[in-house]
Amino acid sequence: MRKLFSTIDRTEALNAKFALESNGVPVYIGGEHSGPAPGFLLADVYTVWVCLDHQFVDACRFMQDDSHEISCPVSMDEFNVAAEEARKEKWPWISDLIMLPLMAVAAFGFIAWIVSRVLAA
Predict the structure, then answer these.
(1) If you count DSSP H runs as helices and E runs as strands, how many of each does the chain have, helices first?
(2) What are the tens digits of pLDDT across the range 46-79?
């Protein structure tokens, strides 16, 4: 996956995604589902990524000249099915298996500490 560009304009990012995907170039928009953060002027930044590295140069040329023909387009339906299957095959992250018990122990310890302070008072 390679970064094509970043923008604060959500419409620009979505237009690029639509144009590229309709020509067989899978695109991911980073920050698409995030919202503005309090206190930040430019909190929304959308980053457009080309999913397949070998299509990056074609995508750059297409963004400069929309008459450029993509040399190796892929079927978006097939790409999405393959991506979903890959997601399903992933085993739960080891960090999730470790962090959940650690957080439970930390929460229990904190509650025990508070109860001991209340009872000591």
Answers:
(1) 4, 3
(2) 999 999 999 999 999 999 999 999 999 999 999 9
